[in-house]
Amino acid sequence: MQKQSELATRFRALHVKGDPVILFNIWDAGSAGIVAEAGAKAIATGSLSVAMAYGYADGENIPLDLSMSNIRRIVDAVELPVSVDLEGGYGPSPDVVAGTVTRAMEAGAVGFNFEDQVIGGTGLYEVADQILRIAAARRAVDNFGKGGFLNARTDVFLKAKPDAHDQPLVAEALERARAYAEAGADGLFAPGLADEALISQLCEASPLPVNIMALPHVPDTPILAGLGVARISYGPVPYWQMAKWLGSEARQARKDCRFFISSTHRRRGFRVRTQTKYSSHSGRRSYWPTLGGEIHFSSRRENCPD
To answer: What number of other Cβ atoms are within 10 A of residue 134's Cβ?
Structure first.
């Protein structure tokens, strides 16, 4: 396994204005492995996805101990930099924030999302209060001595309807960006912003590389790159897509149909083809190869109504 400091250096270098790193957010070690296999350059969790995967609501409801053990399993599952969503740091005080960041680094994380929304309350932290929290997070990273990328999230756009996004909101976001940069932040995350002209203004004037969330109404990657974005993350979207697919397949399985999964197992040049049959009446028969190596799956349905 690579040293944490080396992973931190790699992760920082991925944030290039106009050539954004793509973070398809995950929630556990299994999903991290899938995204890594797809060619990701880094792994990032999403707070909603992690919470819901463990049966909790978003908003620091998942116990911190469970969240940290999940981070450790994710780090152990991949050979990539791992960035984690720490929401509001699990407490309002700078000392609590510093402790949370330290625990995440002890678990192996090299990147941290840290937001200015008041968790469990309304509105955002005042800039004067939030910079104390960011400074505490920065000191925790520096004291740990392995390096780390602190992505300061501002929710000024999420707190406003999209049709209310305008230049005064961008000015507010830039005021926070400058203050957060002076406090030790490494990046600015502006989820909810989708207007191309406003994204361009933010990227042009921000002292920090800008992270935009790829929500359905947001421009696609080439456009965001042209606007100067340095990081594109997907937030809860991958989890929502997975949940929608799983629900659809579960409903389909209740109908009178058969569902076949065929697998090809490759190891040292050999292939073993197997088939698993699922039926709504007959149950299932399955054989799982145990030789190691790679298993490639395909599926087909018979007698399944659309």
So the answer is: 25
Q: Are residues 235 and 139 in the same domain?
A: yes
Tokens of 142: 């520096």
Tell me if 34 is assigned to some domain.
Answer: yes
Rounded CA gap, 24 and 71, in Å?
16
| pLDDT at residue 283 greater than cutoff 50 | no
- CB-facing half-sphere around the CA of 286: CA atoms within 13 A: 11
Place of tokens 């698993």: 276
For residue 20, the 8-state DSSP code is P
* Tokens found for residue 78: 């991949």
- pLDDT tens digit string along 140-151? 999 999 999 999
Q: Would you tell me the crossing angle of helices 127-144 and 94-106 to the nearest 10 degrees?
A: 30
Task: For 7-42, write each residue's pLDDT tens digit.
Answer: 999 999 999 999 999 999 999 999 999 999 999 999
In angstroms, the CA 135 to CA 89 distance is 12
CB 240 within 8 A of CB 215: no
Provide the mean pLDDT of the chain: 89
Domain that holds residue 184: 4-243
Residue whose pair of structure tokens reads 């973070």 in the numeric block: 23
Under a CB-based contact definition with an 8 Å cutoff, are residues 211 and 188 in contact?
yes
Asked, for residue 248, whether it belongs to a domain, the answer is no
Q: 179 in a domain, yes or no?
A: yes
As a whole number of angstroms, the distance between CA 48 and CA 27 comes to 9
pLDDT digits (tens, 9 = 90+) for 172-230: 999 999 999 999 999 999 999 999 999 999 999 999 999 999 999 999 999 999 999 99
